[in-house]
Amino acid sequence: MYKLRKQQTLGDVLEKMMSFPVLKIEITVPIEEAYGYYLAEDIVSDSDVPSFDRSPYDGFAVRSEDCMHADSQAPVILMVVDKIGAENICNLQIKQCEAVRIMTGAKIPDGCDAIIKIESTRVFEENGNSYIEIRKSLKPGQNISFQGEDLKQGEKLLCVGSRITTGAVALLATFGYSEIKVYKKPVVGIVATGSELLEITEKLQAGKIRNSNSYMIGAEVIKCGAIARHYGIAQDTKEEIKSVVSKMMNEVDLVITTGGVSVGDFDYVPEVFEELGAEVLCNKIDIRPGSVTTIAHVNERGGKILIGLSGNPSASFVGAVLFAAPLIKKMLGNRQPFLKQVRAVLRENINKIDPITKLVRGVIWEEDCKLHVKPTGLDKSGAVSSIAYATALIILPPQTTGYVVGDVVDILLLESVEGSENFGHTVCGI
């Protein structure tokens, strides 16, 4: 039987795990498919934005000196000598007491240095000519979008490792990037081990449970931006587990197993990893749940990382977000692969103490400019409901007494919450 090694700290495990080399493959995708990928190149502007001085409003282009002293008691009258849309250019040199009707986005005519909104004028006709009456003063440059005020030519817009968001797609299109160099999405293989497992379509039987872990882990893989490939259920024999894991090592970029990592008679995963040539980094970590998570690395077959998660749902979930997710994000080129760590006010007593760091599923909300948190429900490794409702992991270091309402605790954000972007920082480890 494979023997558990000395317990390691979470921080040490994360540091060693993230030092593993991972294969990041650069590919080119059309802009229509770029959303969600991570950039493998810096994106640089090829022109100023705006590329010329333009009007941000529908209104009139004027000379500010003509309107410098305009007010309700002494309105200024200007003759409208031209009308231009966003696609047109005024070819006139605007002279004293003249104005140009201008639409949003159009180039500022020569001689003009201010824009007045159409709703701030009175427009009228006289002797076949158009005029505007202005009853407010204007300063030079007022209401003008100047060339390069948004972005300068040669400015770095997006860095390598940036996720391509909706806004990033807008930038890429603005500067003519029809194809973008990105990192290929890794394929993550997932297999559940355990003779007690049923497929989710099967009816429950005495002594059996449905395989929920594979689909939970698969969802986390997709959330990270990778591709999940399911390898079903492996029965509790070393031969079958070894056969499936060996196959996965040849076909995917990252191997994740669930179940079979503890010290039971049928817990073969750490032993299988070693027999397949992998160096086991850890299989006992000072956290709960998830203490028996096994992480290994093999140099052969292109260099593969193998993660053995607990079969208990909550422990499997914690292992997926703490260990699998950062590795997947690293493969994607993500520069911030770890969960964001913040502080929150505890709103429910937690009396149970533990000799090692405990991660409690919690729900968070923002109130009075502070984050608040409380446990989501049953805090046991086999509980599923508390995973479904969790938006954070409450970090409870070992202490001789419990935690009470009002204590300020560290938490790891699982999901975004209104206001949470104003708190905390991203960290490597706890």
Mind sketching the topology for me?
Elements lengths: L9 H9 L7 E5 L12 E2 L14 E4 L1 H4 L8 E9 L13 E5 L11 E4 L3 E6 L2 E6 L21 E3 L7 H9 L4 E5 L3 E7 L3 E2 L10 E2 L2 H12 L2 E8 L3 H14 L2 E5 L10 H7 L3 E4 L4 E2 L5 E5 L5 E6 L3 H20 L7 E7 L10 E11 L2 E6 L9 H4 L3 E5 L11 E6 L11 E2 L4
Parallel strand pairs: 4-5, 11-14, 11-15, 12-13, 15-19, 17-21, 20-22
Antiparallel strand pairs: 1-10, 2-9, 3-5, 3-6, 4-8, 7-8, 16-18, 18-19, 20-24, 20-25, 21-22, 21-23, 23-24
Helix count from the secondary structure assignment:
8
Please report the distance between the alpha carbons of the first and last residues: 32 Å
Helix content: 10-25%
Please report which band the strand proportion falls in: under 5%, 5-15%, 15-25%, 25-35%, 35-45% or over 45%: 25-35%
Structural class: alpha/beta
DSSP E strands, number = 25
Strands of the biggest beta sheet: in what spatial order?
6-3-5-4-8-7
What does the overall shape look like?
A: elongated
- Write down the oligomeric state: single chain
Rg calculated over all Cα atoms: 31 Å
Outline the biggest β-sheet.
Answer: 6 strands, mixed
> Spans of 5+ residues with little confidence (pLDDT < 50)?
418-430
Task: Average the pLDDT over all residues and give the rounded result.
Answer: 88
